[in-house]
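Progress note, project year one: complex with guanosine-5'-diphosphate.
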Amino acid sequence: MNIVLLAGGVGGAKLAQGLAALLPPEQLTIIVNTGDDFTHLGLPISPDLDTVMYTLAGIANRETGWGRADESWRTISEVTRLGGPDWFRLGDLDLATHLTRAHVLQNGGHLTQATQQLCQHFGVRCPILPMSNQPASTLVETEEGVLPFQTWFVQKRWQPAVKRIILPENAQASRSVILALQKADLILIAPSNPYVSINPILNVYPVRESLADAPGAVVAVTPIIAGEAVKGPAAKMMAEMGIPVTQESIVLFYEGLIDGFVFDERDQGALDHLDIPQLCTQTWMQTDEDRRRLAQEVLTFAQSLL
Ligand code: GDP
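Model obtained:
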């Protein structure tokens, strides 16, 4: 069985960890959003790739949802003291990741190779693939104008109201991503933000087409529980874009792509009127055991759709 997970950062990493605990590494491939990537202090930063990688390596900071555990901040504090920007925090250990990635890219390697090298050294055995080797930056059109993703998300703490998300045209998936999708028996969409984590992946050609035509089963897990996001701006931006913050909205967003939908027991009954195979269960992953249990339930449900 070949399983592919489409993932953003926090929500993606949690389900990825649950799946990685259950599956042999050769059966699981994680395709990660790079629409949030940007250059900061001259370094290439890939927030979602690193969140997934650090989580699978067991060295993620679980409180923040980004960066490494047991981190120190001497370098960025000194950068700030010297008049550099302080709004995007990079820990001392985390900086080593960005420096190594920069080194690979500056020597002609691409992002997939840089990620592979980092994963190998962090002991992560299942492939983590950036959705593309080319820059494919997400922009956010807000009441304050069009902002680069990290300016809106981190610098402005996702406060400017969102009008729409702008994704690049002509973004291309890497060869490894195309191959992984071709071989997939099950494609899972993590409980990540549909608009700024999953849609940037779907927007990369030919990911959306691969899901629509997938011979296997495609299953999405909701990031919304009882009208709220577990973390981050998903619910707020839905409301601002005029989308009801409901399970039905998420199902409609993935219409034509998914064969089944997993949502939370707190929304029981919310999709009774829809003719889509559904699994209603506890989807809030607070512990490692929650991650494993949800991953197992999602796998069993997806397999039942084959
Ligand atoms: P980001 O790129 O770090 O913002 O990460 P993601 O897009 O992967 O994750 C953010 C989304 O994950 C938010 O919409 C959260 O509501 C959702 N999320 C986070 N943790 C959980 C969880 O334990 N269960 C569910 N169902 N959703 C979650």
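Residues 8-12, 14, 48, 51, 65, 190-193, 197, 222-223, 225, 229-232, 234, 283-285 surround guanosine-5'-diphosphate (CB under 6 Å).
The first helix runs from residue 10 to 22.
No further modelling is planned for this target in the current period.
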